[in-house]
């Protein structure tokens, strides 16, 4: 058998285009060729199970080897092999429709995803790293003749009788000078570990030493010796291909350590297993999340039939679950030929919806069966739940039953429970229910104590997403406002009745305002004298709730108008309680200097109690106080 010919494509430009568009992911050549070898091996197993192949199967594994001096990488299998005619059918004829139009359309494209997503070019990824590719193969079919195929990356090939004596295929790559990095053992090991850790057929890459029992020493203690064994780089039966009933908690935790060896144990996990209307398996883990966590996605690995594809799963996994860890495996997710990017498809949307539902159901189940355990994990779980409620309407509807609000006493309530707790006491005169919150119990302690003294409850909202979550709650909860406890005086935050009469005359009120403006002497402090309860604080310094919230969001990286507000200077409202005995006394003083000193002291005490004094201001305040002793 000897034949020369031309690969059946409609343009001679196809190889340069393949190289150009796949170059950014050039290491995937090894994944593609190993995956093909695994497919061929699985096919011979299938044929044997059906009685269509009765020969000896032998050791079914794929072997990757390399020769640095000869600049050769070889991928070998004991699969079904190919005949010469099958090579011409499957290798020489790249299955295009309208290839010429296709090449013309994409010749200037910058994005490989559109190009390589439509055609079966996996084998030809070999030409990204090889000047020449050889195939040595022998079909499983009785009486088949070995075949050898050689191509140098042009559209010309040579097909002759081969030398292989055993069923299966060798793919031999003659590595080009630009790709010699792939002739290093460590580099090949890294690629195989990344892309092939869970392929269903053993992948051998060289050998490694292993300790085995070797009798006992003179004292009767066991001895061991070092032996060379095959270096099998993959786990052929990961837990996600098993049924949940087969697995124990220990199995899930061990697999998590296999995926993330340096991480703390997860909080819990969800086993995905569905075969209609799409195929999807996998395990998603809820990790422990710190308050100062960097929101880093790419912890979920996507597989297709146990072949690693990508950790970019934003279209499959809902945005709010991108911080989960684990694996998803689905043959029904459309991929481009490099199998590194997803393509738009109805199944992707269905899978996304399914995962949202499974997560919501799992959280609801956990909350119902073990509320105490759920509350203990809330500091970690809350980030996911709040993010989901903000970004996903369907999840919000389900999450209302297990989302928790925590107050400063560390008590936890569902949304309905908290509404019932505070609705009677914290509804203002206009029928608006007011939720109070703090994001810093230390700095805002004085305001919290004042609120508590009136029987009001204060929520603790100090998690990374709480500013956004608060705004979302206000949109969702009917006739409800959420206000930070230090955003105004407590009587203004929850106004129950009309303000009491002002004890100062209009002239006195104006004079007190002027005195405080003189004592403060800061343009960002706007002074007003108001009629409050006599036992309220004499001076309160607050920032408008809207401005404060915009600034908090801007500090988290919010753009647009939030960024605009974030760049604006801080402005404060200084509320002087015209009914407080201290302020009334100040209004009655005749000495202007004494008035100013008293106003300054009262203002500084207000700043001190609210944690608003800067370092230099605090130092000056202490010096003035000591001087008076």
UniProtKB/TrEMBL annotation:
CDD domains linked to this entry: HATPase_Hsp90-like
Domain of life: Bacteria
Pfam families assigned: HATPase_c_3 (PF13589), HSP90 (PF00183)
Statement: the UniProt record of this protein carries the keyword Nucleotide-binding: yes
Lipid biosynthesis listed as a keyword: no
This protein's UniProt keywords: ATP-binding, Chaperone, Nucleotide-binding
PANTHER family: HEAT SHOCK PROTEIN 90 FAMILY MEMBER
Family named by the database record: Belongs to the heat shock protein 90 family.
Protein name: Molecular chaperone HtpG
Organism (species): Terrimonas rubra
